[in-house]
Design a protein that fits this description.
Strand content: over 45%
Number of helices: 1
Structural class: mainly beta
Number of strands: 42
CATH superfamily of the domain at 130-231 and 233-269: YVTN repeat-like/Quinoprotein amine dehydrogenase
Largest sheet: 6 strands, mixed
Radius of gyration: 25 Å
CATH class of the domain at 130-231 and 233-269: Mainly Beta
Helix content: under 10%
Shape: globular
CATH topology of the domain at 130-231 and 233-269: Methylamine Dehydrogenase, Chain H
Distance between the termini: 51 Å
Length: about 500
Amino acid sequence: MRPDILAVSLCHKYIARLKHEENKLEILNLPTSTIYRSYNIQTLTRSFSQINHTSSYVVSQLQWEHILPDSVSTKLAVVIDNLHIAMIIDFRNEDVEPIFIKQPRNEGIESIEWIPPPSLEKDLGAYTNSRQLLIFSKHNLAARVFSLDCTHVLFTIYKPMSSFLIRPSHDNRFWSILASTLEYNKPPILYHFYNEGSVSVLIKSIKLPNTLTTEPKLSWSGKGTWLQVFSDHETIFGYNLLIYNILGQVSERRKIEPLLDVEIMDNGYNMGSDGHLHFSSNQFQSNWVTLSSDREYIAVSDLQGPQLHIQIIEISLLRVIKSVELNLKDKQGWKQSWDKFVYGTITLPETLEITKVYSHESEIYICINNTYVIGCHFRLTESDSIEAEIKSIMEVDTFVFDFYKIDNKLLLITEKSVVTLNDDNDKPQRIFDTNGTIKNTQPDTDQITIIYSTTQGTLWETVFTTNRFTSPRKKRHLLGNTSISLDDITDTFNLKKRIKSK
């Protein structure tokens, strides 16, 4: 028996639930858990494909659209894996027929992502909020850009190496994606698009200087001025860091070069006291740090035993300006013991690995071995130098799979609980616990909706981030539902059935 799939809308007013055993999709009001719309997947797809598909439908993804400011969600994308179909449902009116996008069988659909709409875009046409989406085929063969206002593919990007990336602080107008070429052993190309709302336009393509065989990390600075391409998998030791602006820098050879190319090759091995050369499989993490309104930095962190090494790169100077070393051994911090946190000495194991990093303004939170979270704070001194210190350290008893900040509180999402930690390093508070397993979370201004699985099925609960652990405020399970049947399906992307105008 396959578990239900749940997805919370970004407006935090709806939750979609896919019941595999009943081939039923329900859209519920999140605050009241009442059914707003109900669809029979089998009825919809049978009308589209005109094939009596007797086996069950395998839905692999529910993806809500991105929304305009102060707007509500109106569309949901449903990926039917075994039919290679993406179904777009506009649920404002139950009489509105879905849009179907069918992909080649030999490619299939790995995932689907909505392109966020520009906030200043006027509502033109039949749709609001997001009107473009990216469909990624399996095995990274291609990524195709579709518009709900067009009946053809806008772009096909072959062999994508990453998901798409929105340039921040620019009203969702620019997005980028990195892709390999169809030629063997050639450097990948970075594509920049301008988002017009209904369609996107390619404005720049930049070939990277070196061949990459693994996916690098791409991230924009907070103000959207600089784009970093970071990789530590292409060399035996160290890492490579490239910094670009959106259009790149044209060299004398008329090639687009990075503004900064940092290659550190001496991290990962050292001469031990026994006279032997010791090697370590260092894993590096690169994150943006903002210490003032006009100065942006990159912090590259790695572990060498219990020592946390951080190299700081100032973008305005285009060089490494400082290297700090923080000792993590026998630090005082909060340790989870059963259902409470106690303050004391935290002893790290001998083998350490950075498993996740989250940065927020002048802070970096580093997760080690999936259970230890180190909070590092950076600040500028009066002499304009940078100092780094360990602000907090916490140990939890289950794996950490996500963390982020809401209202100056760190929300730590583990497999079993949601924990908050304030900036003063006061005692952490559990705001949610489960005997099941947390699968996903959707934060809002002062609350968070948690989707988790239990022996009873897939459930969800909404809790306030300001609360201590209490009894569930909202807990919902399998509710009764009603089905609606739509007779005629509009196939926007099936061109062979469309009458061409003369």
